[in-house]
Amino acid sequence: MRYDDFRRSDDIDDRRDDSGSGGFGGGGGGFGFPMGGGGRLGIGTVVVLGLIGWAVGIDPRILIGGAEILTGGGGQAPSYQSDRPSSQAKRGAPTDEMGSMIAGVLGEIDDRWDEIFSASGRTYKGPRIVLFRNATNGGRCGMAQSAMGPFYCPPDRQIFLDTGFFREIETKFGGCQGSACKFTAAYIIAHEAGHHIQNLLGILDKAHALQQQAGSKAEANAIQVKVELQADCLAGVWVNREAKKRPGFIEPGDIDGALRTAAAIGDDTLQRKMQGRVVPDSFTHGSAEQRKRWFMTGYQQGTVSACNTFGASAL
């Protein structure tokens, strides 16, 4: 991916420390998920939530009540906290390699979506990205931890991202190789920005209402899958529009790398890796094939209307 001429966005809070943050590596953290009351989940639930954490997606506590859906109990979602960024946070476009790439991707995402919204008479306001290591205050979405993976917090309109996740996509999941990993990082950010688009369009609120009315965990999960696949498709829409604006930004192997990542973080792939079997009713992000197919739908057609997973006869 060529990104040297990308517009760098200043809508970034950099909460990483000053040591070793310049490359495409680092990061860490174990399987953990903060819950209300200060407790932690049992190991069985941690494994299930870990699947969500390693996948790219929205904070499940916002859409499906996290623990209550996944454990079948009456677990209470964590209370929202006021958003008080660390005093160490640096605001604006970072200057290190990783931070500059992220700022560039966000700038181009905002520009393309502003064009799409303007064409339909809407006003667009982009999300902020919070870069961190290990853990940070997630504002009204509670504590952000590395093990949760990247996620979008709808009430604060912020994307939380431990950049070590990109390295794990390459090393732990084989989702990309070499220079294609930069495009993979852009796909992941564009997916999270897709959740922001859903938020602006009111789709997340409608999905949440449908999940509250769902008669079973399987039904609620099926709605979540449609939300996630739509975000994959919207990521593809951005790639389509960006490629038209900057024809040379996609390099050989980039699209294949994005598809490889989509497959690596499909629910079926993750479940086979972590529990040795596939349970479709527990899917929350979609299968490998579904994630690849919807990303390509957005990429090939380049329209928001093409991403109507809720109206699709088959996913």
Automatic annotation (TrEMBL):
UniProtKB keywords: Hydrolase, Membrane, Metalloprotease, Protease, Transmembrane, Transmembrane helix
Annotated segments matching region Disordered: 1-27, 74-95
GO biological process: proteolysis
Topology versus the membrane: Single-pass membrane protein
One Pfam family, short name: Zn_peptidase
UniProt cross-references to InterPro entries, sorted A to Z: Uncharacterised_pept_Zn_put (IPR007343)
Subcellular location: Membrane
Biased composition, class Basic and acidic residues, residue ranges: 1-19
GO cellular-component term (any): membrane
Ranges of compositional bias, category Polar residues: 78-89
PANTHER family recorded: INNER MEMBRANE PROTEIN (PTHR30168:SF0), PUTATIVE MEMBRANE PROTEIN YPFJ (PTHR30168)
Protein name: Predicted metalloprotease
Organism: Afipia felis (Cat scratch disease bacillus)
